[in-house]
Amino acid sequence: MPRISMSRVEGLPIIVVFVALIGCFIVATPEVFLSLPIYLSFLTTVPPVLVLALGLTFVIAAGEIDLSFPSIIAFSGYLLAMLYRDHDMIWLAVLAAIAGGALIGLINGLIVAYIGVPSIITTLATQFFWGGITTVISGGTSYSLRTVDETSMWLVFVGKIGDFPAQALWAAGLAVLLWFIMNRHRFGEHVLFIGDNAGVARVVGVNVARERVKLFTLMGTLAGFAAILLTLENRNFFNTQGQGYLLIALASVFIGGTSIFGGQATIVGTFIGAFIISMIEAGLTATGIQGFWVRAVVGLVFLAAVIFHLTMEQPQRRTWLARAFGIKPGS
Predict the structure, then answer these.
(1) What tens digit of pLDDT does each residue of 69-84 get?
(2) Which of 27, 52, 278, 281 has the fewest CB atoms inside 10 Å of its own CB, making it the most exposed?
(3) Phi, psi of 236 (to 5 degrees)
């Protein structure tokens, strides 16, 4: 029987951290973390973050960044809510939300790839632009969708299969699909190659501009899909509904182990990272720690995870840290 090297298990360090955190919370609050409702709650709240973080993993792996997806969520959510509430177009509303996100992503990609504006500037600008446009066209008001849970659209995307939330199945399916694209498809290979060295990738025949356009279009499409999950789950649209997800999605990607310098990414790590972020918040709240400590702890975990992954990726840093703490390298 062939032996599997543990070092080749994708995302193993972050999986160990995840299991350890669950163990700590079970010891601290067994009445909460040994009951099913808390885990069903995670399966309801984590999927939108996970969908965003999966797309962001591709963007960061290519050495780029996307700051515009909170406004894409707002814009796509508006299209969904408006077409459903004002025109009763259920499935056209879904298509419009995804197409709206894809279009904004396409525009981002074209500006970055063909005009040459750095992605951080492009997406920061479009974050302001599309956020402002959404506020203008929605009149700054929220849309209540109280009867949306009677539609097939709601059942398909955020309904329940027994007690199991449908959005968790969508997010898991997307994670599997994107894992294959990242690890088994030419597009994923090109993304990692570009992130490692765009110049060399261009020399060996990779169409860097075209792949960057595809990359941002994918991110926009996934943001549009996350808007569908959020709007339907909340049964409400409000024009700032994506604003709380920027830092959470970024933290999920980096905690998961995707390199901040590009060229290296892990879908499994991002998957676990998204759950860790949500679990820390729920776990600290359950243990009675005051809410304002949550962000501080998330920040510490975020920083520790990035330092941990940097030391794992770069042996010279690992050696330096070992010597700094008086540990003999290799011992």
Answers:
(1) 999 999 999 999 999 9
(2) 27
(3) -165, 145
